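Continued from yesterday's entry.
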Amino acid sequence: MRRSRPRHVLGALLVGVPLVLALLGPLFAGEPGPRAASFTTGGGHWLGTDFVGREVWREVLLGGRSAVLVALTATALAYLVALPLGLVSALTHRTWLEELLMRPLDVLLAVPSLLMVLLVAAVLTPGAVGLALLVALVNIPDAARIVRAAAAEAASRPAVEALRLQGETWWRTAVGYVGRSTTRVLAADAGVRFTGVLYLVATAAFLGVGVEPDASDWAVMVDRNRTGLFVQPWAVVVPALLIVALTMGGNLLVDSVLEHRKRSRMKRRPA
């Protein structure tokens, strides 16, 4: 436990700072002040001004909520669809049902995620909700395959056959045993998937999909202010570091929690 504690603390710290800024920042942003010259430092502005003279610190406080909420929503929606698809595919004895559920996902899996987002954005103009739905859609095939693989391994154990012989319901077998047995794999995948979703959301926002060109968004800040990187770097460096910290911290936190659970189970095993 001592070895995992520093990683646990570091992960919580890396996740906590951008999350607090994203969720609570708008409450402390205050009213916008008068605009100053573009890409200036000092003058009462903690982090200087951005490409249109807005205060960078205020934009940082406002810019995280949309990215974080869209990423969390997209990840949750992807698993909301992938979990039942994967469990049913792993536990069914009907080959035609498994093919019916999994083969359409192969079509989505063949198209790169960002390309799918850009193709849809070329036809429609998705807002934040539309972007969350679109990112969730492109993540369902991967998530469903991981759920199916993990569930299939658990479903092949003698315990599942014993539950069937005892007349246990499908729900109790699928959720009570198989679903619980896949918790570690799905928790690890959730951490990695949230990182990928956040990067995809940030990339889409960087390309102007789902957000306005001058929106208060961390990814938009990186894009719009990069022309002044060597003049006023804080307008690019701070939002970029917050995105990186959130993704790295999430993975560290998930890894440390899983390692702690593994060690706890090993201690409970009889010698």
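--- second protein ---
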Amino acid sequence: MTGTAVGVGVLAVDSGGSGLRVVVADPQRGPLAQRESREPVHTGDRGIDPGHFMAQLVPMVRELTAETGVGALSTAAVGAAGLATLGDALRAELPGALRREFGIRSVALVADAVAGYVGALGPCPGAVVAAGTGLIAVGTDLTCWRRADGWGHLLGDCGSGAWIGRAGLEAALRAYDGRPGGSAGLLACAEEMFGPMPGLPGKLYPRPDRPAVLASFAPQVAARADGDPVAAGILGAAARHMAESAAAVCPAAGEPRVSVTGGLLKMGDPLLVPLREELARRLPHAPLVAAAGDPLAGSVRIAGDLAAGALTLPSDAAMLSVVTGAEG
């Protein structure tokens, strides 16, 4: 992304589990240049660490403003994973830090699910399901935000990659035991990936990255769905769960739209065909549309709208809050 130098620009940030992505943009013309860090922002007793966030952000923003010739930054939109539950310190300290370093006076602090929503649908009513290792649905009628699931692999994330992988491994263990509902094909896949089934709990339970390990088996479930009714049934159930979450947050009236984003879409038709059917059945008034962009694009859109005084998205203490005239 490159562009002609502008006098006053905006800053957009996407902070997630894979690191930090940063864009300097022209409020009218969009992104000018981008940088990224592969190091996720630290979390600790105070939640997301504002000091570590700024330590990564400052040099990238300095490089971007030098590259683009942007003379000043007026506005920032920061989309951050974990903001709703781990963002108290970030909300308290980041606006002042951004003003001290860059003169930014208007800051939107945005949950990553909301940034993903805006990237997918823009400031329009509807619902977005973000489906990867975990799963969360976010919806709005432009008066308030609603969320469903996103409760983690032990309590929820129903239909996610971790959920599909866990269900596939359960089917493998059922086949190993000789219980109903097992799949010999999934058993063979599981033994190829993880070794003999009696050793599976010892390999899985102690892992701190257990959701990712479970999700690593999900592609095997999708690969067998064409000829294995158990695997196909798991993906059908995942599609039902995803549609249920979308229906829980989608406005019941008006002309909302629905979009699904995330790595689970790579499974293709074995998941997408039943998902389209479930969404059409549960939300006949809300057409399924392709996502226009990703969470970083959502942060860019929010920053531009805030700078122009045109932000119409509803405020929410946990999901989207705007601080103006932040004092250092």
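The longest helix spans residues 229-249. The first strand starts at residue 8 and ends at 16. Will compare against the first tomorrow.
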